[in-house]
Amino acid sequence: MADSAAADLFDGTSAIRHPVTLRWQAAGLEIVRAEGAAEVIPLAALTFNEHRGDRLVYGHRDQPGWRLLVPVDAAPAVLERMPQGGKYGGWIDRFGLVRASVVLGLVSAAAVAAVMTAPSWLGPMVPESWEQRIGSALVGDLEQFTCSTPEGDAALAALTRDVDDGKSPITVQLAKIDMVNAVALPGGRVLLFDKLVQEAKSPDELAGVLAHEVGHVRKRHVMQALLRQFGLSILLSGANSDIGGTLGGVAAMGYSREAEREADEYSRMRLAKADISPAATAAFFGRLRKLDPTAGNKQLSYLNSHPDSGEREQAFAKAVQPGKAYRPALTPAQFTALKTACKQDTKAKEWSLGWPD
C-alpha cells in the first residue's frame, strides 16, 4: 500500500529482529508486528539516528536500544513524516559547527592529561550515546553479517537474560565469523562468533563466555580499553574516526588484567544467580590453556587478548558448588537452534576480519 512501509524493529529488550509494517495515524506512527501486535509511537518520541547503507535508522527518546530500520526507498507517505536527520549530527546541528568545535577543543585541552593517564575512571564517565557513535564508526553496519532465525534469536535472548543484570538494554548477536571468539563492542553490543558456538561443548560453556563479555559492557571496560589504546583521539574523531577501522581492530583490543578479572567475577556471579554450573566455563579455559599461545594461531584470539587461561580455569572450577543441582543454560532444542542459525540464515554474509599474515 502507498501509505505503509515494511521495516525491521529491534525493541531494545532482546536481540530479536521483528519484521513490522509502518503506517501513520493521527496519534503517531503505527507499528504492526507480523503476529498482529500493534503500537502507536508519537512523532515527538522518534529520533533520527543515522543513514546506514540502504536503511534509515530511527530511535525512541524514552527507550534506549530501541531501533527502527526503514528502507530508504520506503513509501514517501511514510518517510516524509519521519524525523529528518541534520547535516552533521544531532547536537552539532543544535549548537552549530563552529561553536561545537570550540566546545570540543576546550574539553579536549582540559581533559587530555586525564584521558591519557586515567582511562579506568574516565571511561565510565563517557556518555553511552558517545560510545554508541564511536562503536558505529569503528565497526560499521554489522546487520548483514549477523545470523538470525526465530528459534536461534529466541535461544540467544534466553541465554542473554540469564547472564545480564538487565539494568539497561544490551544487544547480543550471533555473527558469521570463523573464529573461536566473542567480543564486546562499544555502545553496549556483544557478538558471539559462530565458530565459538560450533566449538562449544555445551550451552553452559556459552553462558560463561557470554557473561564475561556482558561483564565488560556493564563495567564499561570497552570504553576504558579504547581510551587506553587510542587516547583522547577516540573522543575527538567521533563518527569520522578511521582508528582501527574494522571489527578486527576492536576485537584484538586488549583489556587490563584487572578488567579481565572483573569480567570473570561478573560471569561467575551471573552463572550462580541463574543456577548454571561454572564447570563448563572452567573446561573451556582448560582447553585454551592446552593450546600453545606461541604457535601463531591467529584464529584463536582469546589467547592473544585474554591473559592466563590456567588461572581463570581454576577460578571457575573453584566456583562449582558440590552437590548443587544446576540447570542447563539452554534446552537441547535451543542449543541446536543456536548452532544451526548461521547455516539456516542464507542471507547472512561471512565477515572476513582480514588478519595480517
Automatic annotation (TrEMBL):
Alphabetically, which GO biological process terms does the record hold? proteolysis involved in protein catabolic process
> Which Pfam families does the entry link to?
DUF7092 (PF23368), Peptidase_M48 (PF01435)
**Where, by residue number, does the polypeptide cross the bilayer?**
97-122
Q: Which Gene3D superfamilies match?
A: Metalloproteases ('zincins'), catalytic domain (3.30.2010.10)
Domain DUF7092 span(s) in chain numbering = 5-56
Question: Cofactor stoichiometry and binding?
Answer: Binds 1 zinc ion per subunit.
Question: Organism's domain of life?
Answer: Bacteria
Q: Which residues form the Peptidase M48 domain?
A: 173-316
Listed under GO cellular component are: membrane
MF terms per GO, please? Answer: metal ion binding; metalloendopeptidase activity
Does the record's keyword annotation contain Membrane? yes
Q: Which CDD domains match?
A: M48C_Oma1_like
What cofactors does the UniProt entry give for this protein?
Answer: Zn(2+)
Q: Cite the entry's keywords alphabetically.
A: Hydrolase, Membrane, Metal-binding, Metalloprotease, Protease, Transmembrane, Transmembrane helix, Zinc
Please state which protein family the record places this protein in.
Belongs to the peptidase M48 family.
Q: What is this protein called?
A: M48 family metallopeptidase
